[in-house]
Amino acid sequence: MVDMFIILRAGGNLPFASGSEQAQMKILPKSLVLRLWREWLRPLALAAAVVFPLKSSLAEWNYIPSASMAPSLVPGDLVWVNKLAYDLKVPFTTWHLAEWGDPRRGEVAVFYSPADGTRLVKRVIGLPGDAIESRQDRLYVNGAPVAYTPSSAGREISGAGVIVAEENLPGRTHPVMIQLRRPALRTFGPVRVPAGCYFMLGDNRDDSHDSRYFGCVPRQRIIGRTATVIASADPAHWLRPRGDRLLRAIP
Length: 251
Known about the structure:
By secondary structure, the chain is an alpha+beta fold. The protein has three helices and 18 strands. The termini are far apart.
């Protein structure tokens, strides 16, 4: 057996095989490779060549790893990202082929952080030209204070020093969470949003790395808009499915 292995490694002929058998043995591996390519690899390659560019340009999903958007989004949520909400991009790039809309105040956007390129999910608070200010976690948009009302989502939040309220942005109302015992940047601004940029904040105001720290987000770094949780699994309980969050609209 060892001698036969040495002959094969050296490219020699097997002493007990005829010439035709040896020729057939040399052809067999090549035919197997060609068959594997035709029946398996080529269809998969063609499918990938179609699916991945479409996924890059049209729509995909985004996993929520942190509580920075709580209570609207919680760790373990999987959200649907509409990449055609604002524009059409060249696949695998941020180059815009066409634009037909801009992010609106209150929408939840997916974008690349201008600081390090991390993919983030935050709420659009400031539009180009806006002046955004916060005084002890109370927002002011263009000098006008944003109104807050008690939130039904507060019943789902437990723990002392946690406040949940409805933030009534112009044109959209959504829940926000304040953690009074957590060190945070509660007062800032006013910040003037430059042209072509947007001011993003997490709904969990005292536990979110957002435009307060890395600045306004340029339009070309925005990937798309998300409005639906398509699935959710609890990472604290062995990824147990959360049925109540299935296909849930994001406020």
